[in-house]
Amino acid sequence: MFENILEKENKKVILLGNEAIVRGALEAGVQFVSTYPGTPASEIGNSFYQIQNSKDEIKGLYFEFSVNEKVAMEAAGGASFCGLRSLVAMKNFGLNVASDFLLPLVYSGVKGGMVILSADDPSCHSSAQSEENTRAFAALAHIPILEPSTPQECKDFVKFAFDLSEKFEIPIMVRETTRVAHQSAPVKLSVISDQLSKKGKFVKDHKKFVTMPPRVLEMHQELLEKIEKIREFSENSKINSIFGNPTSSKLGIITSGVSYLYVKEALKELNLDIPVLKLGFFNPLPEEKIKKFIGPSAGGLIKVLIVEELEPYLENEVNKLAKEVNCDLRVIGKDSVPEVGELKPEIVIQVIAEFTGKKYKIQDTKYKIHGAKRHPQLCPGCPYWFVFNGVKKAAKDMDVIFGGDIGCYMLAGFSPHNIQDYLYCMGSSIGIAHGIKKAAPPAGGQKLITFIGDSTFFHSGIPALINTVFNKSNPLIIIMNNSTTAMTGHQPHPSAPAEPDGIEIENIVKACGVKNLKTIDPAKQKEFIQTVQKFLKKDEVSIIIARHPCIFLKKKK
Amino acid sequence: MEKSLEQFNIVIVGTGGQGLITLLQILAEAALIEGYDIRTSELHGLSQRGGSVEVHIRFGKEIYSPLVAQGGADLILALEIQESLKGVYFANENTTFLINKFFIPILGEKLLNEEEILKELKKISKNHVLIPAADICEKELGSNVVAGVYLLSYASFKKIIPLKPNSILKAIQKIVPKKHYDLNKKTFELAKKYEKN
User: Any chain A CB within 8 A of the CB of B42?
Assistant: First the structure.
């Protein structure tokens, strides 16, 4: 719980993984934090926001909800260039948005310690779009990645990451998954840093901060060398450690993150003592340590099991290393560990039982789950009920394509609405709408209505709108202004009237050159329906701003 | 239950908005007071908006996995009776089902009746405790939002959960916002009264 984040040092308190990330950053003396909300990373920003707005406000600590993850990362980068410690937090897809900045940032490196928190969501508990594994950025961006297993490690690894970042002048990524971010457990606290009086100063350094060729090629070379130095550090780091006696067994297990917890649980349950190499560093991997673990000095393992969720990135690396030191080693991974969906204790225990030739009878599964699936629903009183009902009535008897975007309004895809014909990533509803309208011209009679929330519009809808106007197509875009970022927990965003100094979405739309624009409270159904019908006949893009606050905002007042 | 506790595994099922995460926090805090190692797992986000929700807590001497394994639950606490069926995956023949006799309709679906549900549950475990907690709380306290706290307190008095009632009460005091503490304390006392009946 939130109050525990600010508890005194040496106390043992229950923290959620994400709360432990916040505590770790506070202990490390973070001075600049930015984020765009996204589950399972949202509580990180929420907690800083709460700290900022509470009596416990920490002087010298700046926090913002940025407009999107790329801007958030750029801002945190800028603060780090000025020598401050900065943290930027996001969910996996956010890292994609920010990746354009991430790659050159890793090239140039940083000044003040900079930690990038990315949260993956295997099984897509709270994610549409893909089961993304952000470990892939190790290969793409060369960024060092740490993987904590528990809330205690979340706190400790973040602190460690700040030191590491500053020592090697490189941003460090801490990767969580849902079962780490939303796991709670007792955490032993250390002192919250009070060294926050540091003022940032940008010291000009053309060689460091300008990524132009030919300098950028040198930077690439320097980065590769830096990674090798960090690898040496990783070889000796305690966060990569071996449990059990490596010479006692012909079998071994390599794992990291939450998978490690399932491995430990399974070994306890099966009463097995086989050595486990737990990796805190996913990148750079401690190659010598791994070789020692699988190679002749460990008595020559016959088989090694790699327990990891999603893609076999670790398995592939171990396979390469095995060729150097133990050609006969059987590396077992995705041929027995599922590649789709998160791991669970019952999966890992079966895998390990099979790996070790132990008999293990899993609880009988003949009891299939009865009872209907209970889908999430729009809250009673949610303004989207008005929007969806109105649109359905207005578009009755017409061939209309419905575009979806990321927010509570994804529920348009479920009963009783059933009006979502495509859904991809943040802001994409408008860009795709433009393409569809270009490909399927008005003569064909197909109309198109897309829904996009206010926060999503700010995040990445605006460039697509400008494109739609400039390149001339005619979707009807309904911007749902409910004055908050509802789905992820009601974080503020730049829109007026929710924010006193907010930006009117109307002004942005007008400035983009949209002629057909109307702001309506969708509760006024008649006017809303008539406007939808009128706008569907237009030859240019048209926009309805459906303005009605989220019911949670009403409750708060 | 008097021997030193190796582990105790609880899965709480219900629907989004029933306060499952608060219950999880109370249990975790109570287990911490008694000096146990603890792991919990919860989910946030859109799927929790009125949909089926399941959260896990495990405590004992030394705990690793935040998830209860299939068939590994000692207790399944169902805040809605139809949702108790979702707990079956985690049950074994010794599992106790502690169920709030309370129906929340599922959009577009026929309500399952109590007999149908119990018939399914009995296939796997004979231990069911069915309590109209929502009705009791509504009648005696004028609110059914505390039904979960009622069941939790009841479970502790009845030793269905190996945590002392006093630890539960202390945890409630820590977790529940001050303005709701009185109602929750009354709920705890009410569970104590009914436990003796």
Answer: yes
B155 Cα to chain A: minimum distance (Å): 22
The pLDDT score that the predictor gives to residue B106 is: 86
* Residue pLDDT, tens place only, A317-336: 999 999 999 999 999 999 99
CA distance A382 to chain B (A): 12
What are the chain B neighbours of A378 within 8 Å (beta carbons)?
A: 49
Size of interface A-B (CB pairs under 8 A): 152
Determine the average pLDDT of the residues in B187-193.
96
- How large a percentage of chain A has pLDDT more than 70? 97
Does the beta carbon of A261 lie under 8 angstroms from any beta carbon of chain B?
yes
The average confidence (pLDDT) of chain A is: 94
DSSP A77-128: HHHHHTT--EEEEEEHHHHHHHHHHHHHHHHH--SS-EEEEEEE-TT-TT-S
Instruction: Enter the tokens of residue A499.
Output: 């924010």
Model ipTM value? 0.96
CATH architecture of A241-356: 3-Layer(aba) Sandwich (3.40)
Dihedrals phi, psi of A432, to nearest 5 degrees: -65, -40
Q: Do B43 and A182 touch (CB under 8 A)?
A: yes
Is B46 within 8 Å of A411 when comparing Cβ atoms?
yes
- Across the interface, of A16, A179, A369, the residue whose CB is closest to B89 is A369
**What pTM was computed for the model?**
0.96
Of the candidates A421, A459, A367, A406, the residue with the CA atom closest to the CA atom of residue A97: A459
Q: Are the Cβ atoms of A185 and B40 closer than 8 angstroms?
A: yes
* Whole-number pLDDT of residue A248: 75
* Cβ-Cβ contacts under 8 Å, B71 against chain A: 346, 362-364
What is the rounded distance in angstroms from the CA atom of residue B91 to the CA atom of residue B97?
9
Instruction: Give B60's strand partners.
Output: B7, B37
Chain A contacts in chain B segment 123-142 (CB below 8 A): 123-124
Pick the CATH number of A383-556 from 3.90.1300.10, 3.40.50.2300, 3.90.550.10, 3.40.50.970: 3.40.50.970
Checking DSSP bridges between strand B52-60 and strand A542-547, what pairing results, if any?
unpaired
Q: Chain B closest CA to A364's CA: distance in Å?
A: 8
Q: Check if A375 contacts B (Cβ < 8 Å).
A: yes
Q: Tokens at residue B63, please?
A: 């705990």
What residues have CB less than 8 Å from B69, skipping those under 6 apart? A265, A344, A345, A346, A349, A363, B90
Q: Which residue has the higher pLDDT, A377 or A546?
A: A546
Would you place residue A554 in the very low, low, confident or very high pLDDT band (cuts 50, 70, 90)? low
Interface of A with B in 472-491 (CB under 8 A): 487-489
CATH 3.40.920.10 is the classification of domain B7-196:
yes
- Could you tell me the end-to-end alpha-carbon distance of chain B, in angstroms, rounded to an integer? 23
Query: CATH topology for A2-235?
Result: Rossmann fold (3.40.50)
Shortest alpha-carbon distance between residue B17 and chain A (Å)? 10
Per-residue pLDDT for A557 more than 70? Answer: no
Name the residue among B45, B67, B86 with its Cβ closest to that of A179.
B67
Percent of chain A with pLDDT over 90: 86
Cis check: omega of the bond before A497, within 30 degrees of 0:
yes
Q: Using one digit for the tens of pLDDT, what is the confidence trace for A104-133?
A: 999 999 999 999 999 999 999 999 999 999
List chain A residues with CB under 8 Å of B42: 16, 182, 184
Taking residues A28-45, what's their average pLDDT? 97
Q: Mean per-residue pLDDT for A372-398?
A: 92
Write out the H or E segment, with its range, that includes residue A332.
Answer: strand A330-332
pLDDT single digits (tens) A246-300 = 777 899 999 999 999 999 999 999 999 999 999 999 999 999 999 999 998 767 7
Q: Give Cα separations from A176 to A118, A547, B82 (angstroms).
A: 6, 36, 33
